[in-house]
Design goal:
With about 575 residues, the protein is α/β, with parallel strands linked by helices. Strands 1, 2, 3, 4, 5, 20, 21 and 22 form an 8-stranded mixed beta sheet that branches. An 8-stranded parallel beta sheet has the order 6-13-14-15-16-17-18-19. Strands 7-8-9-10-12-11 form a 6-stranded mixed beta sheet, with helices on both faces. Strand 1 and strand 2 form a beta hairpin.
Length: about 575
């Protein structure tokens, strides 16, 4: 790899010891000097000086909580996205349905992802309503939350479920008519799998191409490192294949689902750990705010919004927990001394109390308090100031989702919850002031990769409509950028390699069209454009990367869709 010196209008390092620089010198994919052009040339005499032409060069953004392969399979062809950011209204969804019917042979199943009763403003589909659109076609429509799926009578018949309706699997359920027949709805992972897996297996196409397309989306958003928060052994081959492709744009950190027996085993691979590494074990404490199964100390309001989304107001408190406290204790007892990070999905404040109780018990019991364990909590939508301060004392890092506030904030505040709770959803200021390390994420495919929009949302406390809600929870631009770079690297245990531009770190950069510190924060995500990314000192050519799909051994990855269908996005 050729030595080079990169320059830009300014270099934002995210390194407190040298916040700005003129040039960065790169040798062998590693940063060897940061500072003035003269200092860089002194470090690498004779190296080619490359003016990137960007207004800003800064560390590549980091998605600290994602699901790249699942996201690709859910949103990229041959599946179709009907998520509210692609199809804001139900009429937009109907237009996508119509296009799919016209463009796809009648014997090929159709898979759509992203229905959202709250944002689409309509009750979820059933077999009856889908049959009126699709007739006798096999069709599945996945809920954007990942917790539900809706399907046609033809799909029911194809599985023999019309003659013999299946029993509810453990941990999941099928919606039923009064006579016990299926109504075309299913909820939670085991039942969702039973519906989606047969459809995905029949879609055809290059099995890795959807994942590559989502990698491209992430890179176009400026992301150079990402995580897989629902890793299982069946995904290993796909991630290895992606990691060794020419111009691969992402480094990947894996978090193994706790329900898999091998979750504490190392990821043994010939791929460099700089590109693919296993970091932790993942648990789910509660569910999704959008379908009503989060463990909060306060209830949902009885409004037209919650009724339309069929939120069951009786599912509250500990009833929404996927684990009892005894279950959490048992899992943490089993893995506390394994050396893996523990990552726990939890949205509700009551759920966070329970999780922090279990974490504190384990950290004390196994003498991990004060060590660099970096256990994590994910999403924490309803998290409170005292809980964040407690997390900081325990050394627990926090991964927050500004997208929850941006897309759903208007409904959270006054339509789903009382304003005292809804306006404070994603309490950024309290989290940053607690002293805990805070990162941001998009949780693809729940929302698309948008690091700059995450920063804009957290700085302005404005929702998608432009409404200002919970202004007391606003943070600074610098804090927001840290949450997408150095803080996110810390959460992935990669801050010694990425997250800032400093000597000894990997040369992973994003080029920006304008300085985020200089634009109006209310329009940051549109005023600042991503111009390109660099990985290991090389500028990524996404067309070359996508061209690698032609060399994929499709037989080797033929069952990827079935394995991906078991992914749980949260």
């Amino acid at each position: 790899m050729t030595d080079s010196i990169l320059t830009a209008g300014t270099i934002i390092t995210m390194d407190e010891s040298l916040p700005r620089a003129e040039a960065v010198a790169v040798s062998g994919g590693v940063i060897v000097a940061v500072g003035s052009l003269a200092e860089a040339q002194e470090a690498l005499p004779g190296a080619q000086v490359i003016d990137t032409g960007a207004a800003v060069l800064m560390p590549g953004f980091i998605e600290s909580h994602g699901h790249p392969i699942v996201s690709g399979q859910a949103t990229q062809a041959p599946a179709r996205s009907i998520s509210p950011w692609d199809a804001p209204t139900w009429n937009d969804v109907l237009a996508i349905f119509a296009e799919a019917i016209t463009a796809t042979p009648a014997d090929v199943p159709l898979l759509f992802n992203g229905f959202d009763a709250l944002l689409h403003g309509i009750e979820h589909p059933t077999a009856l309503s889908l049959d009126a659109i699709f007739g006798e076609r096999l069709v599945a429509v996945a809920d954007n939350s990942g917790h539900g799926v809706y399907f046609t009578t033809a799909l029911i018949a194809s599985q023999g479920w019309d003659a013999q309706p299946p029993a509810d699997p453990v941990g999941g359920s099928f919606g039923r008519n009064t006579d016990g027949s299926l109504d075309g709805t299913a909820y939670e992972l085991p039942a969702v799998l039973a519906v989606v897996m047969p459809v995905m297996a029949k879609l055809g196409g290059n099995p890795l191409h959807p994942a590559m397309a989502f990698y491209r989306l992430m890179a176009e958003a400026g992301i150079t490192s990402a995580s897989e928060m629902t890793y299982n052994d069946q995904l290993k081959g796909a991630y290895e294949a992606l990691a060794v492709m020419s111009n691969v744009p992402l480094r990947l950190s894996a978090y193994h689902v706790s329900v898999e027996a091998s979750c504490a085993e190392p990821l043994v691979s010939d791929v460099s750990t700089e590109l693919l590494v296993k970091q932790g074990i993942k648990l789910w404490a509660d569910g999704s705010p959008w379908i009503g199964n989060v463990a909060t100390s306060f209830g949902y309001l009885d409004t037209e919004t919650t009724r339309r989304a069929k939120i069951d107001r009786s599912v509250a408190g500990e009833h929404a927990m996927n684990y009892s406290r005894a279950d959490l204790d048992a899992i943490l007892d089993k893995h506390a001394l394994s050396g893996w990070q523990i990552s726990v999905h939890v949205n509700g404040d009551l759920g966070l109390d329970i999780v922090l109780d279990a974490i504190e018990r384990a950290l004390v019991k196994y003498r991990l308090l004060g060590t660099d364990h970096r256990w994590r909590v994910e999403h924490v939508g309803a998290g409170r100031k005292d809980q964040f301060e407690r997390a900081a004392r325990l050394g627990v890092a926090i991964s927050m989702g500004p997208f929850q506030f941006y897309y759903w904030g208007d409904m959270l505040d006054g339509e789903m919850f009382e304003s005292e709770y809804g306006s404070q959803w994603q309490a950024f200021r309290d989290a940053f002031s607690s002293g805990a390390t805070v990162s941001f994420h998009n949780d693809g495919a729940v929302t698309p990769p948008t690091p700059l929009l995450n920063v804009q949302t957290a700085v302005t406390r404005r929702t998608r409509s432009g409404a200002l809600r919970g202004a007391n929870q606003a943070i600074s631009v610098h804090e927001g950028l840290a949450a997408e770079t150095i803080n996110a690297a810390f959460l992935l245990k990669r801050d010694h390699l990425v997250g800032s531009i400093a000597v000894g770190k990997l040369a992973d950069f994003v080029e920006l069209s304008a300085d985020p510190y200089d634009v109006d924060p209310r329009t940051l995500a549109t005023d600042v454009m991503v111009l390109g990314t660099w990985l290991g000192g090389g500028r990524i050519d996404l067309d070359v990367f996508m061209g690698e799909s032609h060399g994929v051994d499709q037989a080797q990855h033929a069952d990827l869709s079935a394995h991906v269908a078991s992914g749980h996005r949260c």
